[in-house]
């Protein structure tokens, strides 16, 4: 019990959290925030351990039946809105800590995180314990070693150590099929944006990281303020652009894979058209401005729709920049012309300086190479212009010029 007048430890905990939430942090000095954060991390670790212990006891006593639930996992999901993954983690780690007393003690003391406990939990799976027993492995030593790693080593090293141990338990077993564990789930949101998550085996993950990292490291223009995560997102889109442009992907629905956007002509030519004007081939909704951006270096197919929404006439594709003209633009510009960017030509779109929908010509004088990122910028207020001497200049939406520092030589 604490020294206050609260009746139970849980009441004390609630009061302490309320007091912490009521503290004014704005007047505190930086080091005080670091000290406070450290104390709270330890407290969070201890709370996670206590919650895990409680959930395990609830599982053993079938406490969820009291509320008509079949399991503690379903009770956590239904009564406290935990995700299926988080509820499963609590149940799984509760079972594991029963078999790993050294780890349980460290968790209760706040010395290891819930994330570390979850990483070690597979060591205590029934089939893993059975394999260890069959080979005479002292699980207590493994418990102590992995707990020490959880307390002192980076989390990535801990996961690697656990992986090595699990692999050594079955060194002569059949090589697993890596495709069994690969997965990719794509979720489209109402605004057309996409979220995805997935799992890759070690080799597949290495290939993916190598491909993305090569583009991320190659695309580092001067003055780049993107976070590493933003750079990774741009690199992934560029990777898709490169694959689509190469023309070597398998056909999709009988055609070479490409980005498809359907939009009414009135919205396409109206510079003030709002969001939701265009629809992509996979069902995303984009603005007319975004559709015009894609049309800079694409094909346009005219389809006349009758009053019953039936196609009446299908016109020929009109390629805005034919291959011979694109090659001429690439020869002249060599890379993205946006100030400070040197993205190679094969990453770039050919942009109309005066948009084709505004009667801009499809010719060399009215074209510029822009990478995907800077093509977007130019369609959102930035501007590039080629000078009579062949040099490119870039302006921000407020009219100020982006000037890239160029070193100069001082004569002796």
Determine the structural class based on helices, strands and strand pairing.
alpha+beta
SSE arrangement, N to C: HHHHHHHHHEEHHEHEEHEEEEHEEHEEE
Tell me the number of helical segments per DSSP (H or I, 4 or more residues long).
Answer: 15
Question: What distance separates the N and C termini?
Answer: 80 Å
**Rg (C-alpha, Å):** 30 Å
By oligomeric state, this entry counts as single chain
Which residue ranges are poorly predicted, with pLDDT under 50 across at least 5 consecutive positions?
A: 310-316, 407-412
Approximate strand percentage: 5-15%
Give me the side-by-side strand order of the main sheet. Answer: 3-4-5
- Cα shape: elongated
What does this structure look like?
The chain has 412 residues and is α+β, with helices and mostly antiparallel strands. Among the domains are: 35-169, no CATH class; 323-402, no CATH class. 46% of the residues lie in helices and 12% in strands. The chain is built from 15 helices and 14 strands. Strands 3-4-5 form a three-stranded antiparallel beta sheet. A hairpin with a 4-residue loop joins strand 4 and strand 5. Helix 3 crosses helix 4 (84-99), helix 5 (101-108) runs parallel beside helix 8 (139-152) and helix 6 packs parallel to helix 9. The termini are far apart. The relative contact order is 0.05. The model is unreliable at 310-316 and 407-412 (pLDDT under 50).
């Amino acid at each position: 019990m604490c020294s206050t007048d609260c009746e139970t430890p849980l009441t004390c905990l609630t009061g302490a959290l309320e007091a912490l939430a009521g503290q004014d942090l704005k007047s505190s000095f930086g080091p005080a925030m670091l000290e406070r954060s450290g104390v709270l991390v330890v407290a969070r670790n201890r709370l996670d351990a206590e919650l895990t212990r409680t959930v395990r006891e609830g599982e053993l006593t079938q406490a969820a039946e009291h509320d008509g639930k079949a399991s503690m996992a379903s009770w956590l999901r239904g009564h406290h809105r935990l995700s299926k993954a988080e509820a499963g983690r609590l149940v799984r780690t509760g079972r594991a800590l029963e078999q790993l007393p050294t780890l349980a003690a460290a968790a209760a003391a706040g010395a290891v995180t819930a994330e570390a406990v979850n990483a070690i939990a597979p060591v205590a799976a029934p089939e893993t314990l059975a394999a260890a027993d069959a080979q005479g492995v002292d699980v207590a030593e493994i418990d102590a070693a992995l707990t020490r790693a959880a307390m002192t080593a980076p989390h990535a090293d801990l996961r690697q150590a656990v992986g090595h141990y699990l692999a050594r338990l079955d060194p002569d077993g059949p090589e697993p099929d890596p495709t069994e564990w690969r997965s990719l789930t794509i979720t489209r949101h109402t605004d057309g944006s996409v979220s995805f998550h997935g799992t890759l085996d070690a080799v597949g993950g290495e290939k993916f990281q190598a491909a993305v990292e090569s583009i991320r490291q190659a695309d580092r223009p001067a003055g780049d303020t993107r976070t590493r995560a933003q750079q990774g997102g741009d690199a992934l889109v560029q990777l898709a652009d490169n694959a689509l442009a190469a023309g070597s992907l398998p056909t999709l629905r009988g055609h070479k894979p490409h980005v498809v956007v359907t939009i009414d002509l009135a919205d396409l030519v109206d510079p003030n058209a709002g969001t939701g004007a265009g629809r992509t081939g996979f069902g995303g909704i984009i603005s007319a401005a975004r559709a015009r951006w894609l049309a800079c270096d694409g094909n346009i197919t005219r389809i006349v729709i009758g009053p019953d929404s039936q196609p009446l006439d299908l016109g020929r594709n009109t390629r805005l920049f034919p291959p011979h003209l694109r090659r001429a633009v690439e020869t002249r510009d060599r890379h993205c012309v946006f100030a400070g960017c040197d993205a190679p030509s094969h990453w770039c779109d050919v942009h109309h300086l005066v948009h084709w929908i505004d009667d801009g010509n499809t010719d060399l004088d009215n074209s510029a190479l822009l990478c995907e990122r800077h093509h977007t910028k130019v369609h959102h207020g930035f501007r590039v212009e080629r000078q009579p001497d062949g040099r490119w200049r870039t302006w921000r939406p407020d009219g100020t010029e982006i000037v890239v520092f160029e070193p100069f030589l001082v004569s002796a």
